[in-house]
């Protein structure tokens, strides 16, 4: 059984469309009304479908990079009816105190000099392109990075998922069901009524206010001319491979990002639906280059009830479709009104001292003085740790760059010297130095800030009038409640160290075979380093890898439990002294003591670790909260 959250809670149909006609939006029964957001931006719905991307060999002035091929878009989306305007961009700049790349680096971009010709200079930016612009004109001289920043701000403000269109989405929306050179036919002379381009008697020397020309069949204005528009894809000048694609997002990396549609200074051939070009995402800014936005459709996330094959019982899942066949599942944990003991009992601490520390009490046990607390909210928590593949979809969609990449790097394996090293710029979430680190592995070398940005991205996916979703890292109380799964003791199943190898990837005989001087239990789990998520037995709540594999970031900062309210939500915390984030769960290199349910690891605010990742938590807020 599965349904959207909106269906489940409010009992009416969401906006999930299947099997819609490909080229009949203007009359199709699946057409949806326009959306209008808080800035007054109007967006038109584009139904899913299949089309021919690129141009036929018979098309005049086509380029070899425009190889025609079939593309299927499996999800509908909303696209801006107009290019983003100066007025809309100004609201973002003021609200976010944002400076564009042209302003920050002081190098400006391509503006227009007094004589009317294009000019590269530091005096040109979105406020001063060299010609007069009103709030209704398209914003120009913005980089790809600037456009992405606008989308992130709007997503955060509205708790929806705004982004740049993929190149395939852009051409699909531009064509509006046509196969001709332009959305209105093949004759470039007709552009005078449909678009603002160079050498055209349209009445505009430079940019025109948005919406002054005829729209295409989907109700979209200025898809031909006025300003070039940034797309999310990297640009490959060799073009497409010519094979059928489903929901393509372009190459994995390149030097430039795609822009489409042509501008006021462009030739008519550049305004063709298939014409494409690429420029550097941060350093290229032009008075003929802007963007429009896409709003993802509100069928994400969905609720489903399904069995866990390992446990033979059903659980309620919150499922996010991240695109490209990648999903992220969270499991419902019924915690509202539940009372449990957080931390370790005196008996457990005595056992830990004798078993792991030869009778000497470590100071870290002072962090675990127990407290009985009652949680106030049910929640969904990641079935698995977030994988590298799931994090990759976040980066591909948003253009996000991690703190590890922008600072001094992370940690990784030096194969030549057979040791871990760092910090080093060559190591990040993408590269760890191990062939065993794949998209199925838990993502690592992630700071707490990076993990929280991933959560914000998920939070922005829900749109429409459904319930509010709070997406974040688990609070310590929520994490430990979920880990224990109703059990007291050192682990989610009891106290046995050797049994832990069934549930956890930790230091054991497999690791000692490679590192004879290392410590570990005798059992062998088959993994020297981090294992792909979900390889071990889940706890009673259907959660995997709560013990071992990688340490997991928590949302709150360290505080003694006794200073906290006994009835509270997960984030009611008291921080004493320096703010120190906490990680939980242990890792592949740690022994059983570090994998205990109560174990707390205090770390630095900007830490990133080759053994550290995270999982996501979601609270569905009831109406009025």
From TrEMBL:
<dbReference type="GO" id="GO:0120147">
    <property type="term" value="F:formylglycine-generating oxidase activity"/>
</dbReference>
<dbReference type="Pfam" id="PF03781">
    <property type="entry name" value="FGE-sulfatase"/>
</dbReference>
<dbReference type="InterPro" id="IPR016187">
    <property type="entry name" value="CTDL_fold"/>
</dbReference>
<feature type="domain" description="Sulfatase-modifying factor enzyme-like">
    <location>
        <begin position="46"/>
        <end position="294"/>
    </location>
</feature>
<dbReference type="InterPro" id="IPR051043">
    <property type="entry name" value="Sulfatase_Mod_Factor_Kinase"/>
</dbReference>
<feature type="domain" description="Sulfatase-modifying factor enzyme-like">
    <location>
        <begin position="369"/>
        <end position="616"/>
    </location>
</feature>
<dbReference type="InterPro" id="IPR042095">
    <property type="entry name" value="SUMF_sf"/>
</dbReference>
<dbReference type="InterPro" id="IPR005532">
    <property type="entry name" value="SUMF_dom"/>
</dbReference>
<protein>
    <recommendedName>
        <fullName>Sulfatase-modifying factor enzyme-like domain-containing protein</fullName>
    </recommendedName>
</protein>
């Amino acid at each position: 059984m599965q349904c959207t959250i909106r269906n489940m809670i409010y009992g009416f149909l969401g906006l999930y469309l299947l099997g819609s006609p490909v080229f009949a939006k203007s009359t199709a029964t699946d057409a949806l009304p326009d959306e209008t957001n808080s800035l007054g931006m109007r967006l038109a719905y584009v139904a899913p479908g299949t089309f021919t991307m690129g141009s036929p060999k018979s098309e005049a002035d086509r380029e070899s990079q425009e190889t025609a091929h079939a593309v299927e878009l499996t999800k509908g989306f909303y696209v801006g009816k107009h290019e983003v305007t100066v007025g809309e961009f100004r609201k973002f700049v003021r609200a976010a105190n944002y400076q564009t790349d042209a302003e920050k680096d002081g190098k400006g971009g391509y503006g227009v000099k007094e004589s009317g010709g294009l000019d590269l200079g530091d005096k040109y930016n979105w406020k001063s392109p060299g010609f007069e612009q009103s709030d209704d004109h398209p914003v120009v001289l913005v980089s790809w990075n600037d456009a992405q920043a606008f989308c992130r701000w709007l997503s955060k403000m509205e708790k929806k998922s705004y982004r740049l269109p993929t190149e395939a989405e852009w051409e699909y929306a531009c064509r509006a069901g046509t196969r001709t050179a332009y959305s209105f036919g093949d004759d470039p002379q007709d552009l005078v009524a449909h678009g603002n381009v160079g050498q055209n008697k349209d009445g505009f020397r430079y940019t025109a206010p948005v919406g002054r020309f005829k729209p295409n069949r989907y109700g979209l204005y200025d898809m031909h001319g006025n300003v070039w528009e940034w797309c999310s894809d990297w640009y490959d000048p060799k073009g497409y491979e010519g094979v059928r694609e489903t929901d393509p997002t372009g190459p994995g990396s390149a030097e430039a990002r795609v822009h489409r549609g042509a501008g006021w200074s462009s030739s008519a051939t550049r305004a063709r639906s298939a014409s494409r070009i690429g420029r550097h995402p941060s350093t290229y800014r032009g008075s003929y280059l802007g963007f429009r936005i896409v709003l993802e459709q509100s069928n994400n996330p969905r609720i489903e009830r399904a069995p866990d094959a390992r446990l033979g019982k059903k659980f309620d899942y919150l499922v996010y479709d991240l695109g490209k066949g990648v999903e992220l599942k969270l499991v419902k944990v019924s915690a509202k009104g539940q009372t449990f003991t957080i931390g370790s009992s005196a008996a457990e601490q005595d056992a830990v001292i004798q078993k792991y520390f030869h009778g000497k009490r470590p100071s870290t046990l002072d962090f675990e003085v127990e407290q009985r607390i009652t949680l106030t909210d049910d929640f969904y928590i990641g079935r698995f740790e977030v994988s590298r593949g799931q994090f990759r979809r976040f980066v591909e969609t948003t253009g996000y760059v991690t703190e590890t990449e922008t600072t001094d790097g992370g940690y990784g394996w030096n194969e030549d010297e057979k040791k871990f090293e760092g910090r080093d710029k060559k190591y990040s979430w993408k590269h760890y130095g191990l062939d065993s680190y794949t998209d199925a592995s838990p993502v690592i070398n992630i700071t707490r800030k990076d993990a929280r940005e991933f959560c914000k991205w998920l939070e922005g996916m829900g749109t429409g009038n459904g319930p509010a979703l709070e997406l974040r890292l688990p609070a310590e109380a929520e994490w430990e409640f979920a880990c224990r799964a109703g059990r007291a003791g050192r682990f989610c199943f009891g106290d046995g160290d050797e049994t832990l190898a069934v549930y956890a990837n930790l230091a054991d005989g497999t690791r000692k075979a490679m590192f004879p001087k290392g410590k570990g239990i005798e059992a062998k789990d088959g993994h020297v380093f981090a294992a792909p998520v979900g390889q071990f037995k889940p706890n009673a709540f259907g959660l995997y890898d709560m013990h071992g594999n990688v340490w997991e970031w928590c949302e709150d900062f360290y505080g003694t439990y006794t200073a906290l309210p006994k009835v509270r939500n997960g984030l009611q915390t008291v921080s004493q002294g320096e703010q120190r984030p906490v990680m939980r769960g242990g890792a592949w290199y740690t022994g059983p003591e570090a994998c205990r349910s109560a174990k707390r690891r205090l770390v630095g605010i900007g830490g990133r670790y080759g053994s550290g990742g995270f999982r996501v938590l979601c609270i569905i807020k009831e109406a009025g909260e």
